[in-house]
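Pilot study result, target chain (394 residues):
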Amino acid sequence: MTATDTRTAVAVRLRGLTRHHRGVRALDGVDLDFRAGTFTAVMGPSGSGKSTLLQCAAGLDRPTSGTVEVGGTALEGLGERRLARLRRDRIGFVFQSFNLLPSLTAAQNTALPLRLAGRRPSRAEVREALARVGLAGRERHRPGELSGGQQQRVALARALITRPAVLFGDEPTGALDPTTSREVLDLLRDLVDRDGRTLVMVTHDPVAAARADRVVFLVDGRVADELAAPEVETVTARTAALKAPGDGEPRRPPETREVSETREVSEARDAGEARESRPGPGDRRARRARKSRWTRDTWPVRGTRQDREVRETRQAPASREALEPPEAPETREVQETRMVPETRMVQETRKSSWDPWKRQSPGSPRDPRGPWPWQNPRSPHHPDTTTPAGGTPC
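Predicted structure:
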């Protein structure tokens, strides 16, 4: 086999692939080849970089460094428009959460990639894609009217209608029950064996990984191991070895009883000191009260009627009688002097001191001046009074 044939047989090639997320190395120098017409499963502990590897290989995410080739085409030199066109024509992606539009029917969801590409697929083509995944007669059903396994089949038909060279699946059976998961795996295996598709699938299920031709194990962003012609028992044992304590670090010797009790006591003491040093809610409330311009005595009156009465009683100023000392009782002479009747001159003087602000209406009984001149019958200005010529009023 020549070098050209070998390059053509490789559907996806990864060389020196790295991906950093804010100082975290999701991928650290990954070198992998995915042969055309094969089924590869990617496994590893959570956070090992499985989904990041799948997204970089599918062109959904750009790596920090390294090269990705799909069918001999390098992705790092493509712009966003050309990369989107390559994903639409040569790459299919199946998500764990289906990502179906709830307002569209199964047929409309299946035909959506072709419509976004500017093509108008025929009804026969859409029906054929749905019949291939076992959904014949379900073209007019919306996602809410389908089960989880049927929704995953619609997502699979949507990924296959463009006839991609490589199909990527991010845990396509993770949200399905065992029976439905087995049906979807049979369908994926048939796509590889019958149609010659290239399938790369991320999974945590050893049963699903055992259906693949090869299993790749990732740990801390690096390829830790590979397994050809896997079986369920072998995959389970290898996965358990990867999840050992420390993930490759030397195991610590078991602690003795005295060491364990000493460590527990020290941890409890440290936790108690940290709890005591941590400010409680009462300390924080007191600090906020000191910073606030309101105090407890000047805080606005709120709450129930009883609370308002209590606050008003506490906030009311002290009376003058409570502040001043009690007066001495008056003697008899002082009382008699204070009770002497007013003389006529004092009364007239008090009546003549007219205050216009205390007056209610002219001529009212409360007017200290008495009635107006034209209201006084004895006044010469009264209309009923007749005054002779050159004389005095009668």
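One observation from the pilot: Residues 1 and 381 are 144 Å apart (CA to CA). A full batch analysis is planned for the follow-on phase.
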